[in-house]
# Entry
Amino acid sequence: MVDTKVVVIAEIGVNHNGSLETAKRLVDASAMAGADYAKFQTFRSAALASKDAPVAKYQRAAFEGDNQQDLLASLELSEASFLELREYCLERKIGFLTTAHDLESAAFVMNLKSDFIKVPSGDITNYPFLRVVGGQGTPILLSTGASRADEVEQAIEVLQSAGAPRSDVTVLQCTTEYPAPYSEVNLLAMVEMGQRWGVAVGFSDHTSGPDAAIAAVALGASVLEKHITLDRTMLGPDHAASLEPDEFSALVASVRRVGQALGGHRKDVTVSESENRAIIRKSIIATEPIAAGDLLTQHNLGVTRPGTGLSPMLWPDLLGQRAGRSYTRGEMIELP
# Structure
């Protein structure tokens, strides 16, 4: 059986709003929803953004100031908190991931020895960061928000030059807007990137609903990352582009069903179909009494269910031949 299970990452990100207790509640929700991983973001605000870095448009609705460093500081968790969250994920039987957003945090994140290392969209052109990630010998998730194709290709080449084989790289299609307009999701680019560069592909979803995520899985995404929140109306930069726990649970259930529905690339009869195959197909029969030696023609032959006799595909081979024996009306024809 083909393994079609999609890796589902519940992107908690900074939706904990700087609270360890809220972060744990989000881990609970992610585990209950059936996600494979709960993921956070690790950064040091002073290392990630300068004092002059402006607040993005989508962030202004959730923050009164103009300085991105101040916003990030309000969402920052300590290294001790992340160690506690990793243990809490272990207790809840869900994988733990966190994304490093600066080189200082990267050293800490790499030492956690998680199943994946995430390159966030903002670091796709960060050569030193890519070199560090590529040398870890760990599967890589490369997010591609706000990137051109040539920038993605260059990032893959840098990772590869640092020691990461392409088989370890999963490129995530992503639109850097919160929430992202459906008209800018561009899922076909995900398919194209996989085919062009010979890498696995996935989708980091910033839309407000589940539709794009489900479509991405149908198009071949092997990894799905979606934001989760306790309450979409909470104050914070990413809540509006997140799903609440019940919605996230419904999404995971849909993704699992779609993953099963994908199956393999070979068209064949399934187990359940094998029981119905003969019932729905047809056989060649006599439409009137036929004596032994009579010519078989389109006038005395017909096609009807079940398909336990001669296949109608043999029709041209039978026409013009003589019956090897006599037949009653409705009786299945045999080869002469």
Summary: The first strand starts at residue 7 and ends at 13.
